[in-house]
Design brief:
single chain; mainly alpha; 5 strands; ATP-binding; transmembrane
Length: 186
């Protein structure tokens, strides 16, 4: 019996050390050297060095002077992130989207872009298509008392063109740039 148990226990201890300690430490070390910003959460810092958020996670902004991200089914909480799992035929989803569309609707601009009405799969997607950001330009320009072309240029500078997929705008980074351009009134 000991001839079977002893090697099995030794193998369990060895594999636990390799897969539970050595491998994670090696991968973490390589990531810290090769990709330090990404390995540390892609944090966005202000001029004083204080962390304002992660470029990888959406966060809520309140007030007309900010670009709004996609809605979040989990209220932007990372622990309970996820989609609402409501089917397209669910009346609760139709009601929420309808209320959101009514709140965001600007008559002169046509229908509200779908990206401003629907949640992402994780509920934490920090990116919006440029059209969804452009829909918000007039409101933010009026609230910040900025000329529309200045804001359009800021959005153009903040637009990311990934290797694969359509262009996107990171709302947290855009709002940080906006606050540097014209700080929000406290």
């Amino acid at each position: 019996m000991t001839t079977l148990v002893r090697p099995a226990l030794s193998l369990i201890v060895l594999m636990t050390l390799i897969t539970g300690a050595v491998y994670p430490l090696v991968v973490t070390g390589v990531a810290q050297v090769a990709f330090p910003e990404q390995a540390n959460g892609s944090l966005l810092r202000d001029d004083s060095g204080q962390v304002r958020g992660s470029r990888l996670l959406a966060q809520p902004f309140s007030g007309a002077g900010w670009f709004q991200p996609r809605p979040s089914a989990a209220d932007y909480a990372t622990v309970s992130s996820g989609a609402s799992n409501l089917a397209p035929s669910n009346p609760a989803l139709a009601k929420r989207v309808g209320e959101q569309a009514q709140a965001l609707y600007v008559p002169a601009q046509g229908p509200v872009p779908l990206a401003l009405l629907t949640t992402s799969g994780s509920g934490l997607d920090p990116h919006l298509p440029p059209a969804a950001v452009a829909y918000q330009l007039a409101r933010v320009a009026a609230a910040r008392q900025l000329p529309l072309p200045t804001l359009q240029a800021l959005v153009e500078q903040s637009t990311l063109h990934p290797l694969v997929g359509p262009p996107v705008v990171n709302i947290l980074a855009l709002n940080a740039a906006l606050d540097q351009l014209a700080p929000a009134s406290k």
